[in-house]
Structure formats: C-alpha cells, structure tokens
Amino acid sequence: MAKLLFKWDYSSYPGAKKYPHLFKPYQLRDLTIPNRIVYAATEDNFNRHDGMVADADVAYMQSRARGVVGGICFMQGVYMDEARMGQGYVGQAACWHDKFIPGLKMLADAIHAEKAIAGFQLMDCGRVGAVDVDHGHGPSAIPQRLQRFRPMHEMTKKEIKEMIKQHLDSAERGL
User: Fold this and answer.
1) Closest Cα to residue 62, out of 104, 119, 109, 8?
2) Rounded distance, CA 69 to CA 53, Å?
3) What pTM, to 2 d.p., does this model score?
4) Cα 39 versus chain centre, distance
5) What backbone torsions phi and psi does residue 85 show, to the nearest 5 degrees?
6) Which whole-number Å values give the CA distances from 23 to 2, 13, 28, 62, 119, in the listed order?
7) Is 170 buried (19+), middle (13-18) or exposed (0-12) by CB count in 10 A?
8) Which residue numbers in the chain have pLDDT < 70?
9) Which pLDDT belongs to residue 127?
C-alpha cells in the first residue's frame, strides 16, 4: 500500500483548476506524492567548507519547500568522496560519512515541516569539480577548456568501482 506523507487540499489554488494534472497525486513505488511540482537541486553555497550543513542552508531550503506545496524538494547535490575531488562548489554539503547524516536530516526535517517530500542529488562534478584540492577525477585526463578548473586524474577501474560504492553508500545515508 502506498504511503501518503502529507495531505493537501488544492481547491483554493488558482492553478489547480487551470492545470489539474499538475495537482494530481502520483505514486513513486510505495510513496504517494500529492502533486507533480518539483524543486530541482540548486547550488546555494550556504554550507560550511567541510561539507557540514549550516543553519543558513536549512532556512533557505525550508523557504524553497513552501513553494512546492506538497511536491518534491531536492535540497542540493552532495559530494561523496572524502578526498573532495568530486566537490563542485564551495559550500556544497557532503555525504561520504555518517557524520553528515544529522545535518542532512535537519534539511529533510525543514522540508517536511512545509509538507513537502525531501530529496538530495548525488553529485560528483568530475572535470569541473575539485574546487579546494589540487586535482579532480574522471573517466579520462582530458582537461577542462576553462583554465580555472583543476587538472584531471584519469580514474582506474578500481577507482570507478569505488565511486560506484560511494554513490550506493551515500544513497543509503539519504534514506
């Protein structure tokens, strides 16, 4: 049976009559989502430089969640490698260790407080990552054309398998 986290009455919303399909619930596996509105993950740069979630980001995401009126609100992309080669911007939240779960949970709780469904994006930025380290990583060492990006390290098959594991572990932390 599908789980409905939040119930909404859209009868007073002007768009509900004009765009009825947008305000129809849909089922995603065992979860019923009240509408089809999604706030996509954005870079807000409000978190700490060590990947920990900051109060400013919690407040920002809670205000974003108000606008999705029961839909899905993606908090942001999280980087998943301790070496930070996949980190794409300063202030990006991390998810490579369990120590980041409490901060991510604060974000999810703030989104849920606005009766929206919370999610985050697993984000390894590849050749445009490595904002605070000497080099990034990717499937090849082909450099980014813009000089402000770091040199790239071509990943080995072992490193690619490790990245897959990082994605799986981080997804598990997000549950």
Assistant:
1) 109
2) 24
3) 0.89
4) 11
5) -70, -25
6) 18, 10, 15, 21, 19
7) buried
8) 1
9) 81
The partner residues of 74 in beta bridges, in order of sequence, read 119
| 78-103 per-residue burial string, b: 16 or more CB within 10 A, e: under 16 | bbbbeebbbbbbebbbbbbeeebeeb
How far is residue 13's CA from residue 29's CA, in Å, rounded to a whole number?
Answer: 27
- One-letter amino acid at 130 equals A
Asked if residue 118 lies in contact with residue 112, where contact means CB atoms within 8 angstroms, the answer is: yes
143 residue type, one letter:
P
Phi and psi, residue 172, nearest 5°: -60, -40
99 closest CA partner among 17, 173, 4 = 173
The predicted structure's pLDDT at residue 101:
97
Domains of the chain (ranges plus CATH)? 32-173 (3.20.20.70)
Return the ∠ at Cα 20 (arms to 16 and 23), rounded to 5°. 70
Give dist(CA 145, CA 87) in Å, integer.
18
Quick one: pLDDT at residue 135?
A: 87
Q: How many CB atoms lie within 10 A of CB 49?
A: 13
Which residue in this structure is represented by tokens 């202030």?
91
CA angle (165, 77, 128) in 5-degree steps: 85
